[in-house]
Amino acid sequence: MSAGLDNLKHIVVLMMENRSFDHMLGGLKKKNPKINGLNGDESNPDTNGNMVQVQPLAKFQGQLAHDPDHHFPGVDLQIFGGARDPGRVANMQGFIRSYATQGTDLNGSHAIMYYFPPEKVPVLSLLATEFAVFNGWFSSIPGPTICNRAFAHYGTSFGQVDMNIFYITDPILSIYERMVKAGHTAKIYYYDQQSSTMEIVNLLTNQPKLFATYGQFVGDCQSGKLPEYSFIEPNYSDHPGPGGGQLLASDQHPDHNVREGERFIAMVYNAIRTNQELWESTALVIVYDEHGGIYDHVVPPACRKDGYVAQPAATGTGAAFAFDRLGVRVPAVLVSPYIARGTVVPGTEDPANARIFEHASIPATVTTYFLKNYDQRTDREKAAGTFHDLLGDQLRPDNDCVVFDL
């Protein structure tokens, strides 16, 4: 076991919303060719048949006011370019045509191909280059938020592929319940009472003690009382805050301001970073729940089935879905002082060394590290890649790890 694992006491996951890898981090390939980002010649056809290339023209807000489609049928169009035949091959050529269905005009539909140059998203870009960036972290299914976040909590979505609230009767326990039953500590930190999330209704019903607000997360970092596993949710809505001020959504879901999300990522990082004992004993994962309908060039790979099948009426595509392939790639970064600067975890671009991750990798890693031989999991979670082994032997000097000036 490495020194990093010997000292690992806390795993923290911050899950943001609805941005693809290429959209947020694709521009980093020019700085480091090992990062599987954009060459600049990637393209998609628009509704007139014109090929439209990617461009570094993404805006913080206002450009994606028509929410890109990220429901199952829309993502199917994006991945397969509209093909429906059984022998179809994924080509990632349907993004513009999908966005054109959301009320955009021809020029507006091209914005789905735009990405941020690194200097426009300096916080996420810096963490990706200072620590470890995953070339191959994919959303768990080609669909929306609730089912993808369920994979982060349970290692499965129990056969769900849509945004309907569902109540779990399956014996599979959430990672939080597993931890508590085994005498460990775990907690979900939602932002505040006005910005809690829908997909945790099952957890809230059964385990209210597992919840706290973001303000308590900051306090727990300062006091050294952070649980062994923490899941942090951003602010999902603009709403009044204490003292009559306005709190801005920080989840980065289109069309919320990307800069506010950048600030929130920095705040979470700093809360851990500024407590030296906590910093040296924590692994922080920053990841996005799904791509939000925004372009990425990497074809999602096949994956292990988890025993569920979504029927054609649920998928909206005329075909059943056996949970045998992943959704679109998302940004994912692993932060720890035991990770060497510039670490790039290879994905499908390097078949001989590929390491594939998805949201089931979260409970898979937490369970493997803290609970060892726990086996009440789906086959999908058991097959998911784990990331704790990326922590190495060398502790980087304190002055070698950034602190953000907020």
Query: What's the architecture, going by CATH?
Result: 3-Layer(aba) Sandwich
CATH-level-4 superfamily name:
Alkaline Phosphatase, subunit A
- Globally, the shape reads globular
What's the number of extended β-strand segments?
Answer: 12
Major β-sheet annotation: 8 strands, mixed
Residue windows where pLDDT falls under 50 for at least 5 positions: none
Strand order of the largest sheet: 6-5-7-1-10-11-4-12
What is the subunit organization of this protein? single chain
Succession of helices and strands: HEHEEHHHHEHHEHEHEEEHHEHEEHH
Structural class: alpha/beta
- Percentage of residues in helical conformation: 25-40%
Count of domain modules: 1
Give me the CATH fold name: Alkaline Phosphatase, subunit A
- Beta fraction of the residues? 5-15%
Quickly count the helices: 15
Mean pLDDT across residues: 93
CATH class: Alpha Beta
Detailed description of the structure:
This protein is of the alpha/beta class and 406 residues long. The chain has one domain: Alkaline Phosphatase, subunit A, CATH 3.40.720.10. The chain is 27% helix and 11% strand. The chain has 15 helices and twelve strands. It has an eight-stranded mixed beta sheet with strand order 6-5-7-1-10-11-4-12, sandwiched between helices. It is globular and about 60 Å long. The chain starts with a helix and ends in a 23-residue tail after the last helix. The model has no long low-confidence stretch (mean pLDDT 93).
